[in-house]
Design goal:
By secondary structure, the chain is an alpha/beta fold. The chain is built from eleven helices and 16 strands. The radius of gyration is 23 Å and the shape is elongated. The protein starts with a helix and ends with a helix. Strand 1 (49-54) and strand 2 (58-64) form a beta hairpin. The strands form four sheets. It has an eight-stranded mixed beta sheet with strand order 1-2-4-3-5-16-6-15, sandwiched between helices. Bound molecules: nickel (II) ion. Nickel (II) ion (NI) is lined by residues 103, 105, 137, 164.
Length: 387
């Protein structure tokens, strides 16, 4: 079964919403206008319940099927943008310098709204659909906040599904895998306190720049020498701040970065090694090194049965040859992981075609994706909740 006719007819309308959202990006939990837009649309579609303020600024719409009995499935989109200045030059480009929809969450929100409109019109299912619009996916854990607010129990959500666009994957194709599909993330900050002094008299100093450089090198061995090479681990130092002058050895240096893993035991041993390396380097050079380590999003883990189901739904729309069911996991993080820890479900990628990459200032969500995404959501609801 190809794209739904009605979904194709809705493309222009949904693209209009998408562009409006694109022009007005909001960050983190501060998605007030976006949430208000979503709320207004869900009410206009005739959703049976529209609840706002979940997980601070999240919105959930409940659509009951023709037959009310049956379970509830959750379908989730993210609403937040990124702190990037857009360079697309598109007529609907961000109106706010320093903020842009560079991850396509504008498209995700618009497609789920399109599906909500369709499902509220047709209601060709038993049970209920919960359309979930979350804030703060790009850091902040808005998905976690919604789960902590009791969303799953409050709406009796039995299963939950998520979708993200993927640049480089052709439009009309889908990709997923069972098990770990995206990484667990952790952030670390390392503060080195040495002894500053004259750059020409280094013997009287404890140089935090030299110590920091040793540390950057040593941290690479956590992946290359402490971890089974067939496991997945990323340790990236992404900040190194020290010093202000040509002739002064600074007193302190600060490093920071991220750790990505697909397994709990790898995450645990990486953290321990990071602590050991910091302690060892501190002892070697006589500096004081303080490490702050914050485990962040968990692994996005696709439940096997629901992954097969989501792949079958995608296959019904796109054809089996267009559905990649065993992709490599990505080492990016995704806070839909919290919803998948709370309920069984699956996360799927949808092709965005030949666009700039995610989080790039030239990125733009591809409106040609809309009928594919709307059809996926509609068929997923109608199949999971067959009347
Ligand atoms: Ni994203």
């Amino acid at each position: 079964m190809p794209i739904l006719n009605r979904a194709a007819e809705m493309q222009e309308e949904v693209a209009g919403w998408r562009r409006r959202l694109h022009q007005n990006p909001e960050l983190n939990f501060d998605v007030f206008e976006t949430a208000a837009f979503v709320t207004e649309k869900l009410k206009a579609f005739g959703c049976d319940e529209v609840v706002t303020g979940l997980g601070k600024t999240g919105v959930v719409g409940i659509i009951r099927g023709r037959r009310g009995d049956g379970s509830t499935i959750g379908m989730r989109a993210d609403m937040d943008a990124l702190p990037i200045t857009e360079i697309t030059g598109k007529p609907y480009a961000s109106g706010t310098p320093g903020k842009m929809h560079a991850c396509g969450h504008d498209g995700h929100t618009a497609m789920l709204l399109g599906a909500a409109k369709y499902l509220a019109e047709t209601r060709n299912f038993a049970g209920s659909v919960a359309v979930i619009f979350q804030p703060a996916e790009e850091g902040g854990g808005g998905g976690n906040e919604m789960v902590k607010d009791g969303m799953m129990d409050r709406f009796s959500i039995a299963k939950v599904f998520g979708m993200h666009n993927m640049p480089g994957l052709p439009v009309g194709q889908f990709a997923l895998k069972p098990g770990a599909i995206m990484a667990a993330t952790a952030e670390f900050t390392i503060r080195i306190k040495g002894r500053g002094g004259h750059a020409a008299m280094p013997h009287g100093t404890i140089d935090p720049v030299v110590i920091g450089s040793q540390l950057v090198g040593a941290l690479q061995t956590i992946a290359s020498r402490n971890t089974d090479p067939v496991e997945s681990l990323v340790v990236s130092v992404t900040k190194f701040h020290a010093g202000d002058a040509y002739n002064v050895i600074p007193e302190t240096a600060e490093l920071a970065g991220t750790v990505r893993t697909l397994k709990k035991e790898v995450a645990k041993s990486a953290e321990q090694r990071l602590r050991d390396v910091c302690a060892g380097i501190a002892a070697t050079f006589g500096a004081e090194i303080v490490l702050d380590y914050d485990a962040n999003y968990p692994v996005t883990f696709n439940h096997p049965e629901e992954t097969v189901f989501a792949g079958d739904v995608a296959s019904g729309i796109a054809g089996e040859a267009q559905v990649h069911r065993a992709i490599q996991p990505l080492m990016g993080g995704e806070d839909f992981s919290y919803m998948l820890e709370a309920r069984p479900g699956a996360f799927i990628f949808i092709g965005n075609g030949d666009s700039a990459g995610l989080h790039h200032p030239a990125y733009d969500f591809n409106d040609e994706v809309i009928p594919h995404g709307v059809s996926y959501w509609v068929k997923l609801a109608e199949t999971a909740l067959a009347a």
